[in-house]
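Notebook p. 47: complex prediction with 2'-deoxycytidine-5'-monophosphate.
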Amino acid sequence: MGTSPSFLLVAIDGGAASGKSSTARALAARFPLLHVDTGAHYRAITAEMLRKGVTPGDLSGVESALAGLRLGTRVTGSAAQMEIGGRIQGDEIRAPDVNAAVSHFAALPAVRTALLHYQRGQVEVAKSHGFKGLVMEGRDIGSVIFPAADLRFFLHADPVERARRRAQEGQLDSVAERDRLDSSRKTAPLTCPPGAIDIDSTHLTLDQVVDRVATLVAVRLNPVPPAP
Ligand code: DC
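Predicted complex, structure tokens below:
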């Protein structure tokens, strides 16, 4: 029962390789919702900083580099991708040097503030492309970016299982170390916000996780009308 919101906001947070990207992508395709991967935003900014030779310890260098970035969004199917200066970054955002540096740049308030405004602006992007809602995934979506989202999920999985998933994807990525840095930073740490729906994906297949999330999304999008 209940009314359908005019625009549905779904937040999915979780650690590295917790399954949130695959879940968010599958969910977006099923309904359709606009899929926004905020980890890719932090990765793209990191790749850009590395290209410019800016280190996370050089705060004024980071701030002036951020001020010069022209951020845009390209929508392809149900996926939104961040453009920097009109350009989409490709596989370089998953490179080992980006994996190693991204948590350090993501801990900087200046980087987080720039992305907070950009990420909140994705609602307008979704509406202007005719989507009924958006699913945004990251670390602080349900806690900071959209604390009043219609549905907030937090995915977690055993660290051994997460390392296995990354290795299976052929990626060199220390998920436990990134999670340690992401959880211990002062600004917008990785945490399960109060009231979020906590899902342990360790022993679930991707389809099982997607089904759980999709069931709740479907109820919100198509609420059962009250009995006559
Ligand atoms: O989801 P991912 O592994 O691609 O994210 C890369 C990094 O970006 C992650 O180590 C922490 C950071 N991140 C963040 O701080 N906040 C978000 N909302 C999303 C990602």
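Notes: The longest strand covers residues 8-14. The chain has one domain: 8-218.
Next step: compare against the earlier run before touching the bench.
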